[in-house]
Amino acid sequence: MNRPLMPHPDDEQELDDQLPQEQQFFILGGSLFSIGFIVIAFGLGWALDVSPLTNLNWNWTDLLIGVLAALPMFLFFLLSVTLPVQAFQKIKQFLLDELGPRIVNGSILELFILCIFIGLGEELLFRGVLQSWSTQFGVVFAIVLTNMIFGILHSITRLYVIVATLMGVYLSLLLVLFTPQNLLIPITTHTVYDFLCFLMIIHLYRKQQATE
């Protein structure tokens, strides 16, 4: 009878060493990818004669509005991961499988910095350039066009495309419904929402690991 092979201590140590490296790679890679969005935003803005920074102004009140505006989005996320709906559960499991191992032991500060880069990069490109440029054809057209592209580029499942599109519309409305317009609001909302989602994914992943 063959005896089961026992893992060698050196193999376990190698796996333990690989996890932090993978997490650092994810955070660094995600940050660089988001910085790429910022570069694209300025390049596309130059081509379209639209500055991504036109509607970006520092304002404590708008910063607070952005933080509070993230809460409805996060509540929807909480609802979606708890509903016994197969399509939502598929998205949840994808996030746990793909993000869980990469962020579970990551530094909270590093994750927050990554979220800042994500929020800044995507909002400068989509709301700062695409929406601002396409507003010349009408505000509704600008919001629809911008967020159709936004949703498609977040293509994980069909439902996720729809959800991302609707969340993009929400972020677009945060820009146009306040006077004067300030891109700081959707940037802050996007950043805080992503950060809260990362924290929840870490919690759910640890809970899943504990039951396995």
In short:
By secondary structure, the protein is an all-alpha fold. Helices cover 79% and strands 0% of the residues. α5 (108-134) packs across α8 and α7 packs antiparallel against α8.
Order of helices and strands: HHHHHHHH
Helical amount among residues, as a percent range?
Answer: over 70%
Class by alpha and beta content: mainly alpha
Number of strands: 0
Q: Ends: how far apart?
A: 28 Å
Low-confidence stretches: 1-6, 9-13
Shape: globular
Largest sheet: none
Count up the helices.
8
Radius of gyration, taken over Cα atoms and rounded to an integer in Å: 20 Å
SS strand fraction: under 5%
**Arithmetic mean pLDDT:** 89
Protein architecture, described:
- The protein has 212 residues and is mainly alpha-helical.
- The protein has eight helices and no strands.
- It has helices spanning 9-48, 60-82, 86-98, 100-103, 108-134, 139-152, 158-176, 184-211.
- Helix 1 (9-48) packs parallel to helix 5, helix 5 (108-134) packs across helix 6 and helix 6 packs antiparallel against helix 7.
- The longest helix is centred in the first third of the chain and has 40 residues, at 9-48.
- The model is unreliable at 1-6 and 9-13 (pLDDT under 50).
